[in-house]
Amino acid sequence: MKILKLLKETYPDVETALDFENPYQLLVATILSAQTTDIQVNKVTNNLFPKYPSPKELSEATQEELENDIKTIGLYKNKSKNLIKTGKILMEKFNGVIPDTREGLMELPGAGRKTANVVLSNAFNIPAIAVDTHVFRVSRRLGLSQGKTPDEVEQDLMKIIPKEDWKDAHHWLIWHGRLVCKAQNPNCQSCPLSSECCFFQNSH
């Protein structure tokens, strides 16, 4: 498919913008990243990970203390509650080990399907396509999916993208959404995909 070939050529070496060294750190960073920029998350986790190096320390944190540690992030009250619960479940049910299945990850508070897919593909190298706001918007504009929900878009992308490219395609679409195909004022004039793009053809 020409669109995928162009994306691959445009973004050959992209990966997640979240800083992490292990599955636990990626899980925490991804839960924190909802409705917040990755740059802001990285600033917070820089201090957070040394303080809570494993699920054990996270499970023992007080709500007030953790809120204070992540208060520069959107929805911080809710996220701190979810992270403490997640720490407890990881200790009680998974012996402090991050599960490497979608079902296991989705048992954790604050970890929906998108978060589970991010952790599976980036921490465990298990093929998955995480559909965030960028992937959702760009996939629909390019005509890769007409899905009305992230789950529908994910299913469509899984059908047309070879499984070995799922992880990379997720990053190609995210970076294209961040740098070119923005929500407001997409930069269609300098887009390498405009000749293949439904949105561009219909709006020009």
Average predicted local confidence, pLDDT: 95
Tell me the CATH architecture of the largest domain.
Orthogonal Bundle
- What's the tally of helices? 12
* Rg computed from alpha carbons, rounded to a whole number of angstroms: 18 Å
The total domain count is 2
Helix content: 55-70%
Q: How would you describe the shape?
A: elongated
CATH H-tier superfamily of the largest domain: Hypothetical protein, domain 2
CATH class term of the largest domain: Mainly Alpha
Helix-strand pattern, N to C?
A: HHHHHHHHHHHH
Mind summarizing the main beta sheet?
none
Low-confidence stretches: none
Beta content: under 5%
Number of strands: 0
Describe the structure.
This protein is mainly alpha-helical and 204 residues long. The chain folds into 2 domains: 23-123, Hypothetical protein, domain 2 (Endonuclease III, domain 1, Orthogonal Bundle); 129-203, Endonuclease Iii, domain 2 (Orthogonal Bundle). The chain has 12 helices and no strands. The longest helix is centred in the middle third of the chain and has 19 residues, at 76-94. 37% of the residues are buried.
Element layout with pairings:
Blueprint: H1 2-10, H2 23-32, H3 38-51, H4 55-59, H5 63-69, H6 76-94, H7 102-106, H8 113-123, H9 133-142, H10 150-160, H11 166-179, H12 198-203
Helix pairs in contact: 1-11, 2-8, 9-10, 9-11
Describe the structure concisely for a colleague.
Helix content is 59%, strand content 0%. It has twelve helices and no strands.
For the structure shown, list the relevant keywords.
Endonuclease III, domain 1, Endonuclease Iii, domain 2, 12 helices, 59% helix, elongated
